[in-house]
Amino acid sequence: MTRLWDSKLFSLAHWSRRLRSPVLWQGLAGIVTFFAVWQIARWLGWMAIIPSPIELAEGIPEEIAQTGYWQNWIDSSRRVFVGFGIAAISAIVIGVLMGMSTRLRAAIFPLFEVMRPVPPLAWLPLAILFWPSSEMTMAFLTFIGAFFPILLNVLAGIDKVDRRYVQAALSLGSSRGALFRRILVPGALPSLFTGLAIAIGITWEVVIAAEMASGTNGLGYMTWDSYMTHSMIGIVLGMLSIGLAGMACSWMMRWVGQIATPWQK
Amino acid sequence: MQTQTVTQLAATGASPSSIIFSVAGADNGNREAALIEAFRQKNGSSQGKVGRLLRSSSLRYGALGFAVFLVAWYLATDLLKLPRFNFLPSPVLVFSEWMSREPTHGVSIFTPIYYEHILVSMRRVFLAFAIAVLAGVPLGILLGWSRAFHNFFFPIVELLRPIPPLAWVPFAVLILPGVETPVVFVTLLAAFFATVLNTVLGVWSINDDYFRAASCLGYTRLDVLTRVIVPGSMPFVFTGLQIAMGVSWFSLVGGEMIAGRSGLGFLIFDAYMQVALPNIVIGMITLGILGYASSAAIRRLGDRLMAWQSKGRNSQ
Q1: Is the ipTM of this complex over 0.85?
Q2: Local structure of B99: helix, strand or coil
Q3: Closest partner residue to A107 among B61, B166, B170, by Cβ?
Q4: What are phi and psi of A96, to 5 degrees?
Q5: Domains of chain B with bracketed CATH
Q6: Which of A157, A220, A227, A255 could form a disulfide with A208 if both were Cys (CB 3.0 to 4.6 A apart)?
C-alpha cells in the first residue's frame, strides 16, 4: 500500500516541475481569458441577466456565509452516499454471483438490459409512491443511478480476468476460495473502481434533479430555490457547489482505486 | 465491452495516459481473442450476445428471469397487495391500459397524444444530439490535433464539464427564451461533453506512425484530416456518440420533468400529479425502448461505417 505522504501530493519535486511546465500556464491563460471575455461582455452590456465574474466574486462569499449553506452539502452528501453504498454492495454481490454462475447470468442479464435504458429520473414518481419518506425516495433514485454502471463494470472486470491465470491456479491445486481471493478479486478490482467513479458522478446528477423536483433541502433544492427567488448568484453558486461535490467524489473514488490496485498505472 | 469501459473511463475524465494504457491493453486482448472467446462461452458472458441468445438454454433462462420478475410484480401489487406495493400499478393494469382502445387515463397505443409525446421527446433528443455532434466532433478534433489549442482551451472545458446538466436547468430557464430551448440546451450539454472528450481521445489513440507516414507521402493538412484523423478517431467517436445518446435521454427526462410542458418526461410526471398510475409505467417502458433503440441504431451505424474494425471486435 502506498502511503499518503509518499504520494505525488507531497512531493516538492513534482510540484516544482508542474509549476515550471508551460501546460499549466497555457491552461491558466485559457481560464483567465474565459473570465475576461465574460467580464468584458458584461461591461459592454451583453447578457444582462448573468452576473459578471466580479459580481460573483463579491456575492458568493455572502451566500456561503448564510446559515444552512453547509447543511445543504451534508444533506445531499448523505443521500448520495446512502444510495451509492447500497448500490455498490448489491451490485458487487450480484455481479460476482453473475460472473460465477452461467445460469444466474442468463436469467438476470436480459432483464437488467431491459431496465438499464430507463433513465433513473423516470423512476421518480414510482419511487415517491412507493417509499414512505422523501429521504428514502431520493436514496432509491441514487441507488438506481449507481447500480447499473457498477454492475456492468464488475461483470466486465470478471470477464477480463485472463483464463490462463485461472488454469494456472487450478493446476497448482488452488481451492475455490483462493481462486476467488487471489485471481478474481485482483483481476476485477480496476474495472470495479472505474465503475464506482462513474457511478458516483451519476448519483450526484440524480440527487440534484430529485431534490429539484421533490426535495426540501440539499444543494439541488438550494439551486432551485434561488431560481424561484431569481437570485442568479445563488443559482451559479449552486451549480459550482454541485460540480465541485461531484468532482471531489470522483477524485476520491479514483484515489481509493489507485491505493487499492497499486499494480495498475 | 473493453472499449466501452475505456470510454466510460474517459467520460469520467481519467487521466489520458491511463486511458491510452488501457487502449493498448485492448489490442493485447484481441490477440487472445480466440482463447478468451472459448472461455467466455463456457462462462456464459454477455459477449457474442446474438449467438448466445440463439442457443436455447440462455434464451430459456432469460425468459425465466422475465417471468419471475413479472409474476413477482403481479403478486406484490395485485394479488397479495403487500404494504407499499399496493400503491404501485400492477402489470396487468399497465398492459391492459397500454393496449386498450379506450384507455381510462387517456394514453395508449391507440391514442394520438401518446405519439405526440414520443415525437416531441424524440425531436428534442435528436436536435440536441445533432447540435452536440456537429459542435463536439470538430472541437474534439481541434483539441486532439493541436497541442497549443488543447492546452489553452481544454481547462475551460474541464471547468464546465463537472457541472451536471440538470444543475443547469434553472440557469437555462432564466437565460434562454421559450420553453423548448432550455430543455434542448440541457439535453445537449452532457452529450456535447461526452462527444468532445471521446473525439479527443480518438485523435490521441491514432498511431504516431500514421502521421509520420502521411507527412513522408506529402499529405497536405487537409489530407491528414480526412485520411488519417477522421477514420482513425472514428471508433472512439462512435463510442462517444453512444454515450452521448444515453446521457441525452437521461437529461431530457430531467429537463422535461422540471421545466417541460410536453414529452415523455412530462407525461410521467404529469401522470404522477394526476394519479394516472399506469401512465407512469407506460412512459418508463417507452423511454426504455426509445433509449435502447437509438443507442442500438448508432452502434449499427458505427459498425457499418467501420467495417474494417468489426473483425477485431467481438462485441456486436
Answers
A1: no
A2: coil
A3: B61
A4: -65, -45
A5: 89-310 (1.10.3720.10)
A6: A220
Question: C-alpha angle B312/B314/B316, rounded to 5°?
Answer: 115
- Judge whether A169 is closer than 8 Å to chain B, CB to CB: no
The Cα of B134 is separated from the nearest Cα of chain A by a number of Å equal to: 22
Which residue in A has a C-alpha nearest to residue B18's C-alpha? Answer: A265
| Average pLDDT value over all residues in chain A | 86
φ/ψ of B108, rounded to 5, equals -155, 180
Contact map slice: A 75-134 vs B, CB within 8 A? 99, 102-103, 105-111, 114-115, 117-126, 128-132
Q: How far apart are CA B72 and CA B80, in angstroms?
A: 10
CA distance A131 to chain B (A): 7
Residue B46: which of A111, A126, A155 has the nearest Cβ? A155
CA A98 to chain centre: 24
Q: Which CATH architecture has domain A63-260?
A: Orthogonal Bundle (1.10)
Nearest Cα neighbor of B245 from B310, B311, B308, B198 is B198
- Single-letter code of the amino acid located at A5: W
Which residues of chain B carry a pLDDT beneath 50? 1-47, 311-316
pLDDT band at A184 (very low <50, low <70, confident <90, very high): confident
The pLDDT score that the predictor gives to residue A74 is: 92
Place of cell 499518503: A4
Q: Are B163 and A239 in contact (CB under 8 A)?
A: yes
Q: Is residue B153 less than 8 Å (CB to CB) from chain A?
A: yes
Q: Which of residues 220-239 of B touch A (CB under 8 A)?
A: none
Enumerate the domain spans of chain A. Answer: 4-11+16-48, 63-260
* Residue range A113-146, pLDDT digits in tens: 888 889 888 999 899 889 988 889 999 999 999 9
Give the pLDDT of residue B6.
41
Contact A197 B12 (CB under 8 A): yes
Q: How far is A263 from chain B (nearest CA, A)?
A: 13
CA–CA distance from B283 to each of A28, A127, B38, B94, B109 (Å)? 46, 14, 40, 10, 11
Q: What is the pLDDT of residue B296?
A: 87
What per-residue confidence (pLDDT) applies to B309?
Answer: 62
Confidence of residue A76 (pLDDT cuts 50, 70, 90): very high
Segment A221-231 shows an average pLDDT of: 88
Say how far apart CA A210 and CA A80 lie, in whole Å. 11
- List the single residue in A30, A111, A149 with the smallest CB-CB distance to B152: A30
Residues B241 and B197: their CA atoms lie apart, in Å, by 11
Angle at the Cα of A248 from the Cα atoms of A246 and A250, rounded to 5 degrees: 70
